[in-house]
Design goal:
Layout lengths: L6 H19 L6 H19 L2 H27 L7 H4 L4 E6 L7 E5 L2 E6 L9 E8 L2 E6 L1
Helix pairs in contact: 1-2, 2-3
């Protein structure tokens, strides 16, 4: 079955495998496996054309170094995805007013930006006090008194 395989065919197959794994994983690897796969396929192709393992290895090294020192930064910048805060993320650090007493183990309510939210704290906080939002868990705000 593998009688006709040589080292160049194996490089091409490894390149194809790396690309398939990249497709399965998505962008989780930052497209590193895709680049590695392409480099192996090109290296295997050069090896098949020249018949020289030394030229194949040099081709792979040159392409890899070229990617690492030149193309990698540009690709990473082009793929940089900016994240936009959701409404709940944007209220972390904001100040809210307590509209229903918050007791330890018994959530109260706070008002922020005209909306009433369920709120919990590690200390009792009375109605009318100001609190700072430290985190959001589902529909419950974790707050601390200011």
């Amino acid at each position: 079955m593998f009688d006709n395989l040589n080292q160049f065919n194996i490089l091409i197959m490894l390149g194809i495998l790396a690309i398939i794994v990249e497709i399965i994983l998505g962008a989780a690897t930052g497209f590193e496996l895709l680049i590695l796969g392409i480099v192996f396929i090109i290296g295997g192709g050069v090896g098949m054309l020249t018949g020289s393992m030394m030229i194949t290895i040099l081709t792979i090294i040159i392409l890899t170094l070229g990617y690492i020192f030149f193309a990698r930064k540009m690709i990473k910048q082009a793929l940089h995805i900016t994240t936009t805060k959701t409404n709940t993320d944007s209220i972390i650090g904001e100040v809210a007013s307590v509209v229903a007493d918050i007791k330890i183990g018994a959530p109260g309510q706070v008002k922020i930006e005209g909306e009433i939210w369920r709120a919990e704290s590690t200390k009792d906080i009375s109605k009318g006090k100001k609190v700072k939002i430290i985190s959001v868990s589902g529909v419950t705000l974790k707050v601390t008194e200011i």
